[in-house]
């Protein structure tokens, strides 16, 4: 086994080991590497390119009679092409498809919630707001300084100092119970 075989095998095995590591143990390394701003350094691109480079180089070395530098050039081309293909197949489409479950307090303005703990005229109660990402509880104060009993639907009018200022929600489409 020659030096080039060993180089190609190391590249291929490194890529495969990294892939298995992230499959079984999470993608903490991927998150660390994804903090870079350049899309060229995305873990998926680096590892797919490295693995393709190693595998194609090893196969070209073993099964063709090309010179080592020709094999190296072909392996670089194959690795580069696979990395570019991975970029346009997975990375680029996913940039626009990612959704965040995070939110800011200001995004709660206008949301409808329900009082969990009665909101007194002066003081704080608790409301629950249902969002796309789930349900979230927050401290709430009455905007109009009136008591809002538990179970009342409310709308968030303002958010100040991490407190939701709410008012009872009256939906004209709902029929009042008798």
TrEMBL record:
It comes from the Bacteria. The chain crosses the membrane at residues 6-26, 38-60, 66-90. One of its GO terms (molecular function) is peptidase activity. It holds the Pfam family NfeD_TM. Residues 5-99 form the Membrane protein NfeD2 N-terminal transmembrane domain. Keywords: Hydrolase, Membrane, Protease, Transmembrane, Transmembrane helix. One of its GO terms (biological process) is proteolysis. This is Serine protease.
């Amino acid at each position: 086994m020659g030096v080039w075989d060993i180089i190609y095998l190391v590249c291929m095995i490194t890529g495969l080991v990294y892939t298995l590591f992230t499959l079984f143990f999470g993608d903490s390394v991927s998150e660390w590497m994804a903090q870079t701003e350049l899309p060229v350094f995305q873990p998926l691109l680096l590892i797919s390119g490295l693995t393709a480079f190693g595998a194609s180089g090893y196969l070209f070395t073993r099964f063709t009679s090309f010179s080592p530098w020709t094999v190296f050039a072909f392996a670089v081309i194959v690795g580069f092409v696979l990395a570019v293909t991975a970029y346009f197949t997975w990375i680029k489409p996913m940039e626009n498809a990612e959704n965040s479950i995070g939110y800011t307090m200001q995004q709660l303005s206008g949301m409808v919630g329900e009082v969990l703990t009665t909101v007194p005229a002066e003081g704080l109660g608790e409301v629950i707001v249902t969002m796309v990402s789930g349900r979230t509880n927050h401290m709430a104060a009455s905007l109009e300084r009136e008591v809002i009993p538990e179970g009342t639907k409310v709308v968030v009018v303002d958010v100040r100092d991490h407190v939701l200022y709410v008012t009872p929600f009256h939906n004209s489409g709902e029929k009042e119970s008798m």
